[in-house]
Amino acid sequence: MLAALLRAPLDLQAKRIPSFALEPDQVMIQVVACGICGSDLRYYHGENPWALHTLGKPLPNPPNIVLGHEFAGTVSGNTISPLRGKRVAVLCFKTCGRCDQCRSGRENLCKNTMHLGHGAGWGKRRYYPGGMAEQCPAWEHLCFAIPDHMSFDEAALLDVVGVGVHAARVAAVAPGASVAVYGAGPIGNAIMQASKAMGASKVFVVDTYDVALEIARLCGATGAVKADSTDAAQSLREVNRGNFQVVFDTVGTAETLRNCIGLLAEGGTAVLMAVHDLEFAVNSLDLGSERSLRTSCNFRIEEYPLSIALVSSGQIDVRPWITHRFPLKKVSEAFETAFHKEENGAFKIMIYPDS
After folding, report:
1. What is the Cα Rg of the chain in Å?
2. Using CB atoms within 10 A of its CB, is residue 11 exposed (0-12), middle (13-18) or buried (19+)?
3. Does 163-295 carry CATH code 3.40.50.720?
4. Rounded to an integer, what distance in angstroms lies between the CA atom of residue 140 and that of residue 142?
5. Residue by residue, what is the 3-state secondary structure of the chain?
6. What is the rounded end-to-end Cα distance, in angstroms, of the chain?
7. Bridge partner residues of 150 (DSSP)
8. Topology (CATH level 3) of domain 2-157+318-352
9. How far apart are CA 144 and CA 99, in angstroms?
10. pLDDT for 266 beyond 90
11. C-alpha to C-alpha distance for 105 and 172, rounded to whole angstroms
12. Torsion angle, CA of 62/68/72/77, rounded to 10 degrees?
């Protein structure tokens, strides 16, 4: 089968490899659509963002990872399963179910996770499965049938939506809350829309990229602020008429994190989405008056069907995200487009194995 194979850092090719054998709890997915995630770009460069977020430490990646964890397709007709022939969205990770995190409802923090498109938890093998391929094995109980009116593109992006939904729940976004999101990429956009779905009265985004700001407006942001030479934090205060109950940082620099903390109202919560090996200084006075700083990691399994419902009902709209489409055989060109997004006007790039 044809697959997007990351043989080593900076070495990504569309290459034919053997099809993966199924484990007893798996079904085979005929992949129809797969998104390029920002984490895929980091894997390409040799980072391991899953290890940074979940394990709290950098780890090397194995060779020969088939990239892709934002995908959807049809359960193969050769599979013995009630899902055979069904259109499904795929939850891309399986946790152990035995550790303290799993048993306490925090399975998104399980250190024994097996993850499609990453290489995590598989042990040593020749190839590691992922969704940028003609076929991909997936765990049967983590495949969710999608409504007839939901496209494969929408279903493939449910992983992004899940991250946004979980972040909004971590922050305990409440009806009437004012929310700011630093970084208006797909994750920031998902957080913005999830916060609105949870009842936030005002949700502003800030970014340097005009395409992201325009898509945020299309998706219902209260306002979209350009982070340029002016003071973006002060601009946010002015349009909100004060500080915010909740602020999200999807960028993860020392500057953006300080800005997010500085934008918090009393009792407010800042949520860091992008964890890097980075030291930064914080004055503890800035966290006074019951302000809090949290991180958000992946999403819980129960939040995936919730994400399906939010997209299916139109409360979250991912369709404006997609700006570019490529056949799998041109995956290298697709990644080059992603790396130079501002030159190409790219936001979310989709890969299609059958094109």
Report:
1. 20
2. exposed
3. yes
4. 5
5. CEEEEEEECCEEEEEECCCCCCCCCEEEEEEEEEECCHHHHHHHCCCCHHHHHHHCCCCCCCCCEECCCEEEEEECCCCCCCCCCCEEEECCEECCCCCHHHHCCCHHHCCCCEECCCCCCCCCCCCECCCCECEEEEEHHHEEECCCCCCHHHHHCHHHHHHHHHHHHHCCCCCCCEEEEECCCHHHHHHHHHHHHCCCCEEEEEECCHHHHHHHHHCCCCEEEECCCCCHHHHHHHHHCCCEEEEEECCCCHHHHHHHHHCEEEEEEEEECCCCCCCCCCCHHHHCCCCEEEECCCCCCCHHHHHHHHHHCCCCCCHHHEEEEEEHHHHHHHHHHHHCHHHHCCCEEEEECCC
6. 14
7. none
8. Quinone Oxidoreductase; Chain A, domain 1 (3.90.180)
9. 25
10. yes
11. 17
12. -40
Domain regions of the chain by residue span: 2-157+318-352, 163-295
C-beta atoms surrounding 230 within 10 Å = 10
- CA distance readout (Å), 162 to 191, 208, 263, 272, 326: 9, 25, 25, 16, 24
Closest of 54, 48, 139 to residue 91, by C-alpha: 139
The half-sphere exposure of 329 on its side-chain side, counting CA atoms within 13 A, is 2
Q: CB–CB of 35/3 below 8 Å?
A: no
Q: How many Å apart are CA 101 and CA 112, to the nearest integer?
A: 10
Residue 213: is its pLDDT beyond 80? yes
Question: Would the pLDDT of 229 be above 70?
Answer: no
d(CA 115, CA 228): 37
- pLDDT tens digits, residue range 145-170? 999 999 999 999 999 999 999 999 99
Cα torsion 108, 109, 114, 116 to 10°: value is: 50
Q: How confident is the model at residue 54 (pLDDT cuts 50, 70, 90)?
A: confident
The Cβ of residue 228 has, within 10 Å, a number of other Cβ atoms equal to: 9
